[in-house]
Amino acid sequence: MCVNKLSDDLWEIDEGFVRCFLLHGENGTLLIDACMAGGKGFRDAISSIAGENEVKKTATHTDRDHIGGFKKDDTVYIYPSEYEHLGKHDFAVAPLWEGNILAAGNRKLRIMHIPGHTPGSVAFIDDENRMVFSGNSVSESHVYMFGAGRNIESYIASLERLE
Question: N or C end of the chain: smaller count of CB under 10 Å?
């Protein structure tokens, strides 16, 4: 696992083939996805940045490599059409809706529902800094479209909408 500081309020936690992002600053602390392994090293990395601040936990979608680091006492904000895709988990869930604005770090992130990769995939859009946090839906690598809940027509429409 590697932790990279990308800006004053943004860190990338990289497990090699999957990564998540932590925003921390005057507007609060937000974790976007939780990688695959989780564990003490993952939690220590978050604590070293966030300190004692409460960390709001979110997921771009619920494939295991994006929710594996959440633990039993976490409440994770997920788009409701993703609940059925979630499968077995031991953490609490709460709804995240299209148009919600989340303040974290020194940013405001707008939620956009971008189905296709999974039914409830979302993007966290930082309009001011022209950044998008999208899990697998936008990637320099392969975007896997096999398995339950994948829909290529929805995926293409979501990409066009993001553009």
Answer: C
* CATH number for position 82: 3.60.15.10
Q: What is the DSSP letter of 53?
A: S
- 52-89 pLDDT per residue, tens: 899 999 999 998 888 988 999 999 999 999 998 888 89
Q: Give this prediction's pTM.
A: 0.91
SS3 content of the chain, % helix, strand, coil (to 5): 20, 35, 45
User: How remote is the C-alpha of 138 from its chain's centroid?
Assistant: 12
What is the Cα Rg of the chain in Å? 15
Nearest 10 degrees: Cα torsion 162, 154, 113, 31: -90
Euclidean distance between CA atoms 158 and 79, whole angstroms: 15
What φ, ψ does residue 21 adopt, rounded to 5°?
Answer: -130, 145
Give residues with Cβ within 8 angstroms of 11, minimum separation 6: 3, 4, 5, 21, 22, 23, 24, 49
Q: What is the chain's length?
A: 163
